[in-house]
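ok, trying the design again with the full structure, not the truncated one.
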């Protein structure tokens, strides 16, 4: 007995999917907190933390760049669309 109850470290790897599932059901954060026997503020903090720092897997994927050589000046350049055949300089010249 005794000792100050420290805020325990939550196992968010386990809790995140549970929180998401409950929110997906249309539950409010307060209800989610009750269901998981956690403090509302803890859940709120976690949700805002996740908004600020999305996991690597949730990042937008950059389009793969294609190596090309310009049809006009033959300069090598990289482009996101296979339909672009001119380097940025020549495209700018075309207007
Ligand atoms: Zn060019």
């Amino acid at each position: 007995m005794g000792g100050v109850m420290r805020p325990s470290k939550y196992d968010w790897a386990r809790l995140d999917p549970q929180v998401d599932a409950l929110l997906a059901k249309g539950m409010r954060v307060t209800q989610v907190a009750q269901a998981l026997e956690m403090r509302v503020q803890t859940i709120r903090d976690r949700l805002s933390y996740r908004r600020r720092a999305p996991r690597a897997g949730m990042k937008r994927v950059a389009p793969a760049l294609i190596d090309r050589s310009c049809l006009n000046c033959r300069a090598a350049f990289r482009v996101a669309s296979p339909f672009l055949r001119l380097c940025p300089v020549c495209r700018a010249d075309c207007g």
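Keeping the full-length input from now on. The first helix runs from residue 12 to 24.
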